[in-house]
Amino acid sequence: MTTHPDQPTRRGLPARLLDTELWIVLGGVALSVAEPRFTPVAVLLAALFWPLRWLATRKLWHGTPADWALVPVALAIPVSLWASADHTITIPVAWQLALGLLALYAVVHWSSTASRVHVVVILLALAGLGLALLTPLAVTDRTALLSIALRPLPALPVLIADGVNANIMAGVLVLLFPLPVALLLFAFSSLAWWERLLLLLVTGAVGGMVVLLTSRGALLALGVVLVVLIALRWPRLWWIVPLALVGGVAVIVAVGPTTILNQLAVGGDISSLSGRLEIWSRALYMLEDFPITGIGMGMFGTVADILYPFFLAPPGSIPHAHNLVLQVGVDLGLPGLIGWLATLFIVIAVTWRLYQFGRKSNDAIQAGIGAGLLLSQLAMLTHGLLDAPVWASRTADMAWLVWGVALAAWLVATKKNRAADAESTTLSEL
After folding, report:
1. Distance of alpha carbon 143 from alpha carbon 430, whole angstroms
2. Is residue 133 part of a domain?
3. d(CA 305, CA 282)
4. Which of 114, 124, 305, 377 could bridge to 315 as Cys pair (CB 3.0-4.6 Å)?
5. Domain ranges, residue 244
6. Is residue 99 part of a domain?
7. Considering just the CA atoms, what is the radius of gyration of the chain in Å?
8. Whole-prediction pTM value?
9. Is residue 40 part of a domain?
10. What is the pLDDT of residues 127-180, one digit of tens each?
């Protein structure tokens, strides 16, 4: 039997079962989004593939540039459980973080070739489309624009009783928006007709839903992404980035910094910049008082109400830090935060290099994937200034999947580049 060059070498039943890892884990992630109480089952199913990999390859996992950075994040899970004063709150969040880490590695393990990376990119696009279409049925606080858009349709119920906050959903959607639009801009002629059609549909649905949800943080992230994406696609247009910055500064000066910041801070539980500043100050107090262990995942609201009560909000109304970096820090402590930030910087570095490799080698798809994944990090950080949509929410595992695709694409690209260098060296010797 001839082995396809794109397929990994098979070694018995365990190796064949490994081919199902991605699909089982993605199914578990989807199930956990729909019903979080099934997250432990998804984690246990995902964990079973690690001993299987040992039996098949004598390796527990495939190495990535982010392995050492992820170690303190993983170790923070038991530490957080030890530090928590209420395990009924922390345990579900711990299960979700464990599933996110396993999902990242599931993507890396399965995406061992360029064709498989292409498949997971399409799967991410489909995930964005699915979330966009489910948003009217999942968000519990429909905004005015979304209600107007749905008015011609029959009355749509909210199918999820403990559904997703509109601001959180917008943050996840804007994370998934850059990849399909970057592929369209960079690699339109290199894509199959059905891929073009799918990516156009995803771009319209995801971008349109971000607008309809009217999350100011997500809209700011969307604008930043589009400006930088144009500059990456057409480098001669880099001047639009400083021009946009100058225009932004001019608007801030004309309208007033306080007014602008107050408008950006509106949404969710907080209606002013002063409210956000009060929350952020409580998060900093927690980091000062619990720097090593954190306060226990998911415990921000409880700990704040007991130890650092709010003056501008009633007890029980502030569930998280409304800032991505601060939220990770108070949940995991400084060691976990350093590991998370290191992973983020590694992903930014490899996606930038992936984009550069694609441009230099005229590989439009690789350039588009690199640019899209890079801008996903920019979108996450921009929205994360005001909220924490990809941490400790039911859709938070999407960020880990995006990181997994970025690391997998980098590993495949470097393997391809090493093979090309070796071939060129051999030809030069001949």
Report:
1. 67
2. yes
3. 10
4. 305
5. 111-416
6. no
7. 22
8. 0.89
9. no
10. 999 999 988 888 877 776 777 777 666 666 665 656 678 888 999 999 999 999
